Here is the input.
Amino acid sequence: MVRLGQNFLVDANLLDAIVRDAKLEPEDVVLEVGAGEGPLTERLAEVAAHVHAVELDRRLEPALAEVAALPNVDLHWGDAMKLDLAALDPAPTRVVSNLPYSIATPLILRTIEQLPTVERWTVMVQREIADRLRSAHNRREYGIPSVLVQIACDTKTLRPVNRSVFRPPPRVDSTVIELRRAAPAADAVTRDLVRTAFAHRRKKLTTSLAEAQPGVLGRARSMMRELGLRLDARPEEVRPGEYVELARGMPWRTADWATERRQML
Here is the structure.
């Protein structure tokens, strides 16, 4: 039976390959989101010091009972997007998962931001998502996830995945990708600036920024010149590192700041 739209990974060879791809050390603490019936959880527990496994569907409790009883596994029931990641003890150092398609992108971004202890992600995602996360600038797939992931991580495609390894087979292709942390996550100012930029990707970057926060146009143009960017450049023409520099050099205020300011007036 399909539960909550899940597609269960049932190929033992691929499960073993994912664990090998993860290159776990004996001291690693793994976060797995979407434990399903537990075949990957069990393999991870054999090689890692600890596994935090997250599963939303309580109907899988009987299937996960044996895995949950392992001494180095903590099974967390609930929505991974609402889980208090900072409260996980011990703190994760790796993320290894067959990620639920519906939350793959926001979950990856959330773990990059909220789990600075994580050094590497080995995750299976929809191929379209993998293309977006790895996309270079000036490509159609390049957008907010591309920028925010690449600010913090180096990305790599590990292996394509055939639909036949799932039960039931999904309607989309999948890919196993690796992210390696190379820098801290984008700060709140950078995240807000990037989201503002891509909200109207057909517009010039300076136009979108100026419309969102009047008064920044002059500094935005100055920063664009300093970075060697055309003044009529659109969001997809700006590299991740250049967005970081723009955020550092501009008097940009986050959306949260603007909301608090309006409430005070």
Summary: Strands lie at 8-9, 29-33, 50-55, 73-77, 94-98, 120-126, 153-161, 166-167, 174-181.
